Amino acid sequence: MDWIEVSVSTTTQAADAVSERLMQNGAKGTQIIDRRDVPDKDDGSGFGELYGDELKENMPEDVRVVAWFASLEDMELARADVQQLKNLEDFDAGSLEFAQQAVKDEDWAENWKQYYKPMRVGKNLIIKPVWERYEPQVADLVIEMDPGMAFGTGTHETTRLCMEMAEKHYQGGRALDVGTGSGILAIALAKLGADDVVAVDIDPIAVKAATENVARNDLQNAVTVTSGDLIRDVVGSFDFVVANILADIIITLSASIKPLMREGARFLASGIIRDREQDVLAACERQGLKLTDKMAQGEWVALLFANA
To answer: How wide is the angle at C-alpha 54 spanned by C-alphas 51 and 58, nearest 5°?
Structure first.
């Protein structure tokens, strides 16, 4: 099928907010193209060498958020919603100019890959696209990824927040990844030592991508990918639950997540834009969950709760 590819001109400050609004209005995936995300060759990490000077030079001067829509109707709804960012005080959203073109499946699937390179998240987790080379260091936990149309590459701040918090707080036991997408968080938990992870998603494209990525990492014995309506179809109890989804969905699910948590279990909630933090906090506290840690990047927040 043909897709409608939209490119929105914006700023580093507003890129994640633009991405969220595009996704809320039907975008099947988004990609942020920002020169500031490309590491310098001499930053000491070694990752700058993987990008090369030519790639950065060919990137647009302004920040672009690229999204893919299946219908013009969804795209127009997204355009109107994104324009509302101009009304926020003390918030530089840039021009928010839309450009659009039709692209075929095979072109869409390949074009975005040029900006997806190996990256380190936290201390030891390495996200490695399957088509890129990377020489692991001692203690590196390498996650082989091809997100396909599920779009969970690990480049988004909410995913990085989850991975860093999981690396910091996961202490063993059965784990649940709600809305798994490409499966990246379920795989990260398995790399961190989990031998029983349930990854659930309602989207059949995500279920397919997650299943394939689990196999790429040879983790079929540790991660079970299932199709279901978030946690409605999940049974059993868990020691660690992660949900990298939107704030409204976390609020709605908070009452259902609590019964799935064993005593002392942890619930990691992400995908929360800063101005919704208190709403999520209040909803989880009403269920008897206690906030134990918080991490923020850009406009996004991840909250860790304990089942006290």
So the answer is: 105
Domains of the chain: 2-115 (3.30.70.1710), 154-307 (3.40.50.150)
pLDDT less than 70: residues of the chain: 1, 36-61, 105-116, 147-155, 230
For position 50, what pLDDT does the model report? Answer: 41
Q: What is the CA radius of gyration of the chain?
A: 19
Which pLDDT score, from 0 to 100, does residue 57 have? 58
pTM passes above 0.90: no
Calculate the CA 200 to chain-centre distance. 15
